[in-house]
Specification:
The protein is α/β, with parallel strands linked by helices and about 500 residues long. It is about 60% helix and about 5% strand. It has 23 helices and five strands. It has a five-stranded mixed beta sheet with strand order 2-1-3-5-4. A hairpin with a 2-residue loop joins strand 4 and strand 5. The protein starts with a helix and ends in a 9-residue tail after the last helix.
């Protein structure tokens, strides 16, 4: 397990700033820095998801040594998802008596090297926290059925409360849990050493723990009591999105295609088919013979959750983590069963070698997805990703501000239809006077202007060349921004640039 954790860290930690912040990451970054600098967080029921990500990130901001958001590196924001991604592995030994020690070892290895798990452990969004808290609730629930101890009931409730406080899609996971738990109990209740005394007290303890966590986080630690009603009201806009009122509408096979076989033009083959095949074997094992109740629960839970996410039209690739983690646990069962199926040592050695070889190949995919293809559309887990080219625009704007009389108090106007300018609010965080517009204002001119090419502004012509369009940068696929700079200010900036040589 120590070697697996070391390998997981080696894949997750290096070059965390390799990829520019996705627009969702930038929104979270702005909100968490408000919490950090102003001790203010208010849950928004229409966007942005729950508060746990922001509070979990605070310790890393405190320890960063940064005095303000302008000094904060992107990598610091991603430490919390990394930590929770590693936490998934640390929870696995608590399931050893239900999954089997060999299955736990395989599940740990596959969690460590899965490209999806690695890529989104390096992503400053809520998904990895949701998967961790789900695992925490499942582990605690299993331990309660085995020990009957009240503390495990309380922990299971706290896990559910944390799921609620992380992301609205927790209700899908909860539905799959209830369905799978009910069917498992009906079919295997005689095999469960479930305690018969004080069950209602323990249920009340679990509900109380869940309620306490819900109350604490959605009131922003007792400072915003309106957050309690908002935590329920949020399901109105999210139901509309799930029903199709969103640009993120995809066919039912969207997730499985990315996991099974993704081969873009002029790109490498991406596949986590090893995990899918082993998970299928794990499902067969879970229903054959006399399996552990935990085996059967995981099989039913994962199948239900996979169907739920596939049926819902609204899809973004990181949402697959919720059911894919269940597949990884089943794959651990399948891998252990595949090795144990053969009695001859030579045959076992061959199977073991093949599995380890394919696991190494998954590690290679993880490294490529996180580094070489971190922002590349040929990566199956890249979705509406910020293109590194936009950072050239940001660097130029900062360079111009560095020679301007007002420095970073220089006025900067950003214009894009439908507020389609994220993650620029994060990357322009050093500027003190930024105006954000959806259409060109009556007076569009300011020392610096970043304008979407969709507006066809031509501000250089309209100003009779008193402003220059000094560059076009791609922000996302098919989304470009022009940078306009006041002519005299641009001349001043150009004078500071090193001279161009023949080598250049």
């Amino acid at each position: 397990m120590l070697l697996v954790i070391a390998g997981a860290l080696a894949l997750r930690v290096p070059h965390l700033d390799q990829r520019p912040l996705h627009n969702d990451e930038a929104v979270n970054a702005v909100k968490v820095t408000e919490l950090w600098q102003e001790a203010r967080y208010v849950y928004d029921p229409d966007e942005y998801h729950g508060p746990t990500l922001h509070y979990a990130t605070l310790p890393f901001l405190w320890l960063s040594g940064a005095a303000n958001p302008g000094e904060l590196p992107d990598a610091t924001l991603r430490f919390a998802p990394v930590l929770f991604g590693i936490g998934l592995i640390l929870l696995l030994p608590f399931l050893s008596d239900g999954l089997g020690r060999h299955a736990v070892a395989w599940a740990a290895l596959l969690t460590a090297v899965s490209p999806a798990m690695v890529f989104y452990s390096r992503y400053f969004i809520h998904e990895m926290l949701l998967v961790f808290f789900t695992m925490f609730a499942l582990v605690s629930g299993w331990r309660w059925t085995q020990t009957g101890q009240a503390r495990w009931a309380a922990r299971a409730g706290a896990g559910l409360g944390l799921m609620f406080a992380t992301k609205e899609t927790f209700v899908l996971t909860l539905a799959a849990m209830v369905l799978a738990g009910t069917l498992t109990f009906l079919s295997t209740h005689r095999k469960l050493r479930m305690p018969t005394r004080r069950n209602w007290q323990h249920l009340g303890l679990a509900v109380g723990a869940a309620g306490l966590v819900w109350f604490t986080f959605f009131t922003s630690f007792f400072t915003n009591f309106g957050g309690l009603a908002d935590s329920v009201r949020t399901y109105l806009p999210w139901l509309k999105r799930a029903g199709g009122a969103s640009p993120h509408i995809h066919e039912w096979s969207f997730y499985l295609q990315r996991l099974a076989w993704f081969h873009p033009v002029k790109g490498p083959v991406w596949t986590e088919a090893l995990i899918l095949v082993l998970a299928a074997i794990g499902i067969v094992v879970s229903f054959a013979g006399k399996p552990s109740p935990l085996h059967r629960f995981l099989a039913l839970y994962t199948m239900f959750l996979t169907v739920i996410y596939s049926v819902i039209s609204y899809k973004t690739p990181w949402c697959l983590l919720s059911f894919f983690h269940g597949m990884i646990l089943l794959a651990g069962i399948g891998a252990a069963a595949s090795v144990e199926f053969f009695r001859a040592r030579a045959a076992r050695a061959v199977v073991l070698t093949l599995l380890l070889g394919m696991t190494i190949q998954l590690s290679w995919q993880s490294r490529s997805a996180s580094l070489e293809y971190a922002s590349d559309r040929r990566n199956p887990y890249v979705y509406a990703q910020t293109v590194p080219d936009i950072l050239n625009l940001v660097r130029t704007a900062e360079g111009v501000a560095g020679v301007a009389p007002d420095r970073f108090a220089t006025v900067l106007k950003v214009v894009a239809p439908n507020s389609d300018y994220w993650p620029l609010p994060w990357y322009f965080r050093r500027f003190e006077n930024v105006g954000w517009y959806e259409t060109l204002p009556d007076d569009p001119f300011s020392p610096l202007m970043a304008v979407s090419t969709k507006l066809e502004a031509r501000l250089d012509d309209r100003s009779e060349r008193k402003w220059l369009m000094v560059g076009i940068s791609e922000m996302r696929p098919d989304t470009f921004f022009e940078l306009y700079v006041e002519l005299e200010l641009w001349k001043k900036y150009v004078e500071t640039l090193p001279p161009i040589t023949d080598d250049d």
